[in-house]
């Protein structure tokens, strides 16, 4: 029988498991039963013996690795992590959950990327596990969990204040009657049955509530409890003399797992034209004409849209996640820039410079646009970028050329490269890629004397004060350059008969 603690380690059953373990003693010792359970799981794929978790700590890291790989690796193989959905591992899994929360709470605190990823991973794991259970088991366990989590039969919507304020749930997700949450079928039929005409009330219940809403509430409440627990650990850790070194070590290993996407998935694998783009310092010489124009400053109308809706997504994605369209995986800024250093020191300064060059300078008469810029980066309507606000809004992807032509026509001054792309970010990636291809003297360069095409345009500083952190070549020594796009592409066009 599946234990509630398999879905909610913070349940009383889960706490009992922790109590039984008692202390950290022997926490890193091998557990032959755990290895055996993983090795004998019929759905498990094991390529290398090293992939089998041998103890609580390794299991904890596997939990994080599962989430990170699932989210970032397009070739993710779920069979490598089949053991995570096997409820036979419950007692080990619960301990590994507590170890993770404590390690993250002690080392990183509640407002960290590590906490956010841990909470999201727990939510995803609960959903994954529910999906693997038989329908009747899943229903039974959701009902039982909700009874514990909701504590009362009558629940007023204000009970969800925390979930609503952290945007884990929206008020519109809930079905309310006189402010009370309706989840139970009988309750629904009693309250709404007589009012539903020309429809079957039972079908309406399935449509509006069914298993889906119950699961959603349960998952989000477990996520919130996980977050609250990390917060408690952090508070306690502040008054403790010395945190357990095992937790600090685990926290470092968690940070390594989280850093892996930036090293392995989608960045710098150097597979030529079909491979991922490498995120790196911005090269203004590769910017498309519309971005160059916006950087000169908007002198006519449309300053707000040009800076907030156009430049902010372009600059942030070009610097942090140039491959967004090819990868087709939604990310947050902190997935690419965990400490927000690049965002603070390179992305925002360039956007602010463009805003400053507007006539009149944008923030002189509309300082509130700084808040809107933060919102477009995914950090909600706040005046500073704070991890705790990330996710309140969406990190906007760059506008397509079609939209720019429609809403900001004065920025669009297409050149030859523009004929081959549909988005300014694709233009930028193409130009950057051409540079690296020429650098390698690769087959696509079409020019064995490729270096002749380098630095065809003089480097120029886009900064107003020469202090931009972007590699603008302000000192005339720009080490990034692009081929002269018009010449190179003209000759290409002639060959292909498109000119
Ligand atoms: S076609 Fe697209 S990339 Fe080229 S200038 Fe216009 S908006 Fe920019």
* Helix and strand element order: HHHHHHHHEEHHHHHHHHHHHHHH
Describe the biggest sheet? 2 strands, antiparallel
In terms of quaternary structure, the protein is single chain
The overall pLDDT, averaged over residues, is: 83
Describe the global form. Answer: globular
Low-confidence stretches: 265-274, 442-499
Please give the order of strands in the largest beta sheet: 1-2
Number of domains: 2
Which small-molecule species are bound to the chains here? iron/sulfur cluster
Number of strands: 2
Strand content: under 5%
Short précis:
It contains 22 helices and 2 strands. It has helices at residues 4-7, 12-21, 32-39, 56-72, 90-107, 113-132, 135-150, 161-165, 185-192, 201-208, 210-239, 245-264, 289-296, 303-320, 324-327, 333-336, 341-356, 362-365, 369-376, 401-407, 424-440, 485-496, and strands at 176-177, 180-181. Strand 1 and strand 2 form a beta hairpin.
What are the key terms here?
mainly alpha; 2 domains; two-stranded antiparallel ribbon; 22 helices; 2 strands; globular; disordered C terminus; binds iron/sulfur cluster; iron; DNA-directed RNA polymerase activity; iron-sulfur; 4 iron, 4 sulfur cluster binding; DNA_primase_lsu_PriL
């Amino acid at each position: 029988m599946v234990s509630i603690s398999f879905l909610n380690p913070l349940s009383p059953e889960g706490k009992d498991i922790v109590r039984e373990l008692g202390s950290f003693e022997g926490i890193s010792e091998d557990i032959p039963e755990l290895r055996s359970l993983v090795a004998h799981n019929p759905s498990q794929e094991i390529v290398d013996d090293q992939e089998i978790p041998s103890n609580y700590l390794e299991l904890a890291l596997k939990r994080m690795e599962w989430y990170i790989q699932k989210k970032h690796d397009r070739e993710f193989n779920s069979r490598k992590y089949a053991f995570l959905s096997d409820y036979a591992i419950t007692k080990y899994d619960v301990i590994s959950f507590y170890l993770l929360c404590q390690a993250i709470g002690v080392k990183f605190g509640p407002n960290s990327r590590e906490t956010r990823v841990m909470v999201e991973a727990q939510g995803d794991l609960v959903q994954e596990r529910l999906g693997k259970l038989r329908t009747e088991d899943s229903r039974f366990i959701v009902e039982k969990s909700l009874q514990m989590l909701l504590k009362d039969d009558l629940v007023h919507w204000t009970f969800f204040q925390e979930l609503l304020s952290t945007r884990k749930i929206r008020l519109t997700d809930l079905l309310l009657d006189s402010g009370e949450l309706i989840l139970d079928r009988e309750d629904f039929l009693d309250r709404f049955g007589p009012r539903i005409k020309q429809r079957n009330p039972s079908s309406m219940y399935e449509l509006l509530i069914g298993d889906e809403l119950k699961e959603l509430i349960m998952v989000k409440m477990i996520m919130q409890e996980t977050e609250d627990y990390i917060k408690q650990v952090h508070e306690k850790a502040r008054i403790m003399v010395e945190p357990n070194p095992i937790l600090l070590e685990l926290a470092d290993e968690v940070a390594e797992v989280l850093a892996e996407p930036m090293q392995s998935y989608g960045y710098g694998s150097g597979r030529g034209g079909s491979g991922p783009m490498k995120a790196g310092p911005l090269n203004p010489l590769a910017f498309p004409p519309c971005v160059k124009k916006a950087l000169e400053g908007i002198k006519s109308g449309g300053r707000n849209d040009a800076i907030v809706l156009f430049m902010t997504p372009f600059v942030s994605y070009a610097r942090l996640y140039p491959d967004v369209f090819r990868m087709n995986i939604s990310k947050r800024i902190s997935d690419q820039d965990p400490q927000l250093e690049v965002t603070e020191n390179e992305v925002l300064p360039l956007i602010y410079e463009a805003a400053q060059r507007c006539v009149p300078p944008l923030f002189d008469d509309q300082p509130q646009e700084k808040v809107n810029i933060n919102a477009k980066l995914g950090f909600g309507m706040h005046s500073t970028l704070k991890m705790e606000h990330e996710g309140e809004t969406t990190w906007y992807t760059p506008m397509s050329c079609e939209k720019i032509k429609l809403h900001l026509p004065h920025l669009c001054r297409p050149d030859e490269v523009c004929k081959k792309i549909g988005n300014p970010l694709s233009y930028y990636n193409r130009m950057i890629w051409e540079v690296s291809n020429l650098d390698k003297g690769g087959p696509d360069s079409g020019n064995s004397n490729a270096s002749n095409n380098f630095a065809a345009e003089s480097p120029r500083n886009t900064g107003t004060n020469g202090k931009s952190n972007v590699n603008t070549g302000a000192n005339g020594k720009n080490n990034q350059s692009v081929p002269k796009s018009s010449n190179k592409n003209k000759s290409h066009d002639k060959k292909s008969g498109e000119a």
